[in-house]
Fold this protein.
Amino acid sequence: MNLDSKIPPGPLTEKWDKRRFDMKLVNPANKRKHRILVIGTGLAGSSAAASLAELGYQVDSFCFHDSPRRAHSIAAQGGINSAKNYQNDGDSVYRLFYDTVKGGDFRSREANVYRLAQVSVNIIDQCVAQGVPFAREYGGLLDNRSFGGAQVSRTFYCRGQTGQQLLLGAYQALSRQIGAGHIAMHPRTEMLDLIVIDGRARGVVTRHLTTGKIESHVGDAVVLATGGYGPVFYLSTNALNCNVTATYRAHKRGAYFANPCYTQIHPTCIPVTGDQQSKLTLMSESLRNDGRVWVSKTAGDKRPPSQIPEGERDYYLERKYPSFGNLAPRDISSRAAKQVCDEGRGAGEGGRGVYLDFADAIRDRGEAYIREKYGNLFDMYAHITNEEPYKAPMRIYPAVHYCMGGLWVDYELMSNVPGLFVLGEANFSDHGANRLGASALMQGLADGYFVAPYTLGNYIASSASGLKIVTSDRPECKQAEAEAGDRLTRLLAVKGKRSVMSFHRELGKVMWDDCGMARTEASLKQALTKIPQIREEFWRNVSVPGGADGLNQSLEQANRVSDFLEFAELLCCDALNRNESCGAHFREEYQYPDGEARRDDENYCHVSAWEHKGVGQTPELHKEALVFENVKPSVRSYK
Amino acid sequence: MNLTLHVWRQQGPHEPGGMVQYQARDIFPDMSFLEMLDVVNQGLTEKGEEPIAFDSDCREGICGSCDLMINGLAHGPEDGVATCQTYMRNFKDGDAIYVEPWRSRAFPLVKDLVVDRSAFDRIIQAGGFVSTNTGGAQDGNCLPVAKPDAEKAMDAAECIGCGACVAACKNGSAVLFTGAKVSHLALLPQGDPERSRRVRRMVEQMDAEGFGNCTNYYECEAACPKEISVEFIAKMNREYLAAVVSGKGE
């Protein structure tokens, strides 16, 4: 199959305007006749559902939480980028575009990224109009701060809870449409399959989590905004229930999965403590504005940090990357932390941690300054670790945070299955091999507020003849319902001895050890041998108590983990196939003598889009060549 | 440490429920309360028994999913945190701990410790928004907002919608939740045009959901994981009164 990215012709700066003008429109009276199914209510899903309903479409919105406000976008702390240049510090749409393409290590689509930078400006306006309480300066204007990978101050924020406030803005817009009767909201409803009829995505199979009812919903298009697959590593900064089920099951129905090996490991998280830990907590990257990262120069140094004199400390980020220093991008900072810990210079018990030290900032600017700026983060750290970060440096270590990979989409955010749109973290398109801080919120809202409402209308207007009315009693629906139900019955029937969580943890350990921050051909081949073994034991020895009727959280969890056990193979397969290092994908065989990632633009300047060929079968690779007409791929230097 | 748990178990909304005793063994002080329950659940699962159902998701105190009464206190003994950020270092070896769901007529029980809080969503749907469609917004800096007003709006907007205020209130009142949203939007110029209509409709919906009235016990503020101030209840009352007296927003 030929992957047509549908990038519009013409100069970069005019592509989106031109495309919008060329799109077909649906007349207002006709919009009411079309039903759109939106899965997920995070930033991308809520903003898309609300915007589509405002335009007049009938929208059905689904989330597995008890309320749409609980989606994991809510946990984003630091901020959202926008090329407003309110600070007059040299920012522009083009600079945001350039930073993002470079930050992604030249593995994203230029046209998509430029559009993202363009609409970033509208997002802030839209959110302000909704009443999002952004931080302000004394004059009443919007305040900004800096984030990793950028030398300008373009990040808008709401204390340490930017994701919460942006999500509540979108949730309120969604709620307004629910109240007005334009959106049918389905909480505690999880998507289990995609319904494809005559080659088009026409519906989803869902399970109602409190009644257990499995049913089909049909419409004219399906929008997946179901987030990333970070918990394939078990421990991550994601919420416990984040999962790959919606995108993976769509993949099994024909949607290509692109670049699954691009998984971001965030450098500033609280280190792992016990075996029973259920999640890792992020400390916002904004802390690196004032904190200095260091370890001891000596391996095996057991002294407490206060006993290590200045001359025996290695401020390794400042040493290796003098121009960006502690604000080096995430992939680079994470790898540097791993390196010093691998050398035995790590801090704390187990040696898996580095110091993030505010002593200099407190000395120079006072504790009050630090308290005002980061008070809630310091409190959170103190609360979780029972240590006092105003007195001793924080200990941090990288953790799985975000997935750049996702379902393949074209410029219109439609997958290779016509009528299946994929937004936000669930798609692959804008961040390349590494995402810069404060750009996930930007992308989720760009897709939902400003891209999908146009492109989806164009799809409907251009497919009018192909979109025959379908009902949920079609054989395709009945078959998908039966398959989804069967899988649950099989999970309940195993009646083995091990909990779902124990399998999830085992899978996560394999993924972290063999396919984590550094990967080798040997480690990936090892993972590809172990994963099918875990999966085999899972289906033979998992214990899922209770039944399929009514609320059964073990069954929900088992169903999601069963998908991770298949998807993990795809991820490793992609990592093994990509014989280069780029962004967050670091293959130890491919590095420069100084340890920096060595890209291979000659052979790997493409998107790897995988086609499902059956569980345990090798997927088929389709390549979309990446063409750089405006930014010349170069060695990414932050020195 | 080892603990004795007394947990409310109830198969469904129409089934009888009761306290069931469990032992939690080998618990570390640095584990969170929910990780302790994970350990208990893992033990139940390995024996083929149904684990205790409870809601939780982000486990960093921001999504508002988790909602347990621990020894009669909404979100447990620590101030200013949700259940998921309550650590076992608050308890000692040999303690007996009572774990119950939120209790309120407006939050019907689903199973075990899981309740239905959709009444909160319906309050927001009634008016907890600014009526602005996507597109066409003016530049974000066109309307300056005084820093103290923006900060105060943010104080109110931090609500995570967990329902602890209702659970802690002896009247089962939702005025802190509703007042926080009314205040957040009334404090900003963007929310001003609809302020009368908003407060009327949200208060009407709150009453229709069966929440109780406020008698100023302030248990809500004490239980709130975001420590949202009761001053926002007063603000809502003033907004409501102003709307009624002026006849606006009918």
